[in-house]
Amino acid sequence: MFNLNSIVRENIKSLQSYKVWRDDYLDSNEAIFLDNCENNFGSPLGLGYERYPSSSQSKVKEAIATFKKLKANQVVIGNGSDELIDLLIRCFCEPKQDNILVCEPTFGMFKVYAQLNNVDVLNAPLVKESYLFDEKLILKTITSTTKLVFICSPNNPTGTSISVEQLKTIALNFNGIVVVDEAYIDFSEKQSAIELINEFENIIVLQTFSKAWGLAALRVGVAYADASIIEILNKVRPPFNINSNSQELILNALKKSGIKDTLVESILKQKAYLENELLQLSFVKNITESDANFLLVEVTDANKICSYLLEENILISNRSSLLNCENRIRISVGTEKENKQLITLLKQYN
Hints:
The protein has 350 residues and is of the alpha/beta class. 35% of the residues lie in helices and 15% in strands. It has a 7-stranded mixed beta sheet, sandwiched between helices. A 4-stranded antiparallel beta sheet has the order 8-9-11-10, with helices on one face. Helix 3 (58-68) runs parallel beside helix 9. The radius of gyration is 22 Å and the shape is globular.
């Protein structure tokens, strides 16, 4: 039976959230701010930039929560999903004592932040060749000191997804937290795990504005979870982690979600074109079925192909060093012009 209090680090339990009182007065035209040692005369860029951003991020959280049909207390915003991964490990994993579990090959930052926090990493590998998730292996690999299971779905670099039923099985049989990283969910027809967070207290879903929304420059990631988990993350979250410009631009973007949907349609159309063209090349052995905006392609010689394309100023990702990814390259879906240029060059290589 999952008990949140039993897996929170003791030093986090006693930690008090950093309270920024001015958030209650940000919309006041009469308030005089002499509390944060700012330059009240302004800045070289003009007025407004001299102020710290909203720490509570209440407007953005409300807008995101409404868009996702959730409550604002089920939302926490990070400086990219990377910050949220770091926060989760710091909140729930005792250094030199606890561990996390990942399913390799997968997003490398799970392991990086575990190592930075001196936390061990267990691996329940994806099924070889198909790159599908094995929930039985995941549950078998978990130990008594496993606090977090990180599931990237659709997975990077494979593009494969875990099913909702598999997630339910893991969450029901695990006393820790299941973290589902859905950075690429907008490109998938599969069901989002967000629908599970009201049913399972131990499921957290990470999403981002960097991929389908095309806002990677803003560095805004979001975690959705039970309010009790969000409260703990807010204890550790830096008070001014999302700058004012990013907050305003996210608010504007949410009002234009139709544009995002149109962009996703264009990407999926180009993905189908790219896959069809790649399969006609003699050196392409296999393409993994992908729910994301990229393709994992098995080729005869990944190093040579990557070097060849680099000489033509086209950058793709060589994933050969990852577990069970020998001679695999990951190709992000580009514009129609970019994709045609890529295929033309690969035909010449062929």
